[in-house]
Design a protein that fits this description.
The chain is mainly β. The protein has no helices and eight strands. It has one domain. Strands 1, 2, 3, 4, 5, 6, 7 and 8 form an eight-stranded mixed β-sheet that branches.
Length: 119
């Protein structure tokens, strides 16, 4: 995450989705293991172009994520529509039923999102 990114304040019409996709791998003992990765997606609009967005998991918290933005430093009044996506930092043994995404002023706005199976 870049230093200039901050909690998404200017993002409008934010909609969020989350999915769990399972992977099967052999461990060091050659036993089959099934683990999941969480994928989160956010769509939104901004009043100007040039914005950059990130959706990142809070380290150590499988069910807590941050929607971050970096402003363009100019205002051209060309409405922009963006998507941000991210994956869990590591495989998860237990898939959470929901995740919480924080954004807005100081991350005070939260949205709880159901985690759907990846089909």
């Amino acid at each position: 995450m870049a230093d200039e990114f901050r909690s998404a304040v200017a993002a409008e019409n934010v909609e969020l989705k989350a999915y769990a996709r399972h992977f099967e791998h052999r461990d060091e003992n050659e036993e089959e293991r099934r683990r999941a990765v969480i994928y989160a997606v956010a769509t939104m609009s901004f009043p100007d172009s040039g914005w950059q967005v990130e959706l990142v998991q809070v380290e150590g918290h499988t069910d807590e994520w941050l929607l971050l933005e970096d402003s363009p430093g100019f205002g051209d009044r060309q409405r922009t529509y963006l998507i941000a996506s991210g994956t869990s930092l590591h495989e998860v043994e237990e898939v959470p039923k929901t995740i919480v995404v924080r954004y807005g002023e100081d991350g005070q706005q939260t949205t709880r999102v159901s985690v759907a199976p990846w089909d």
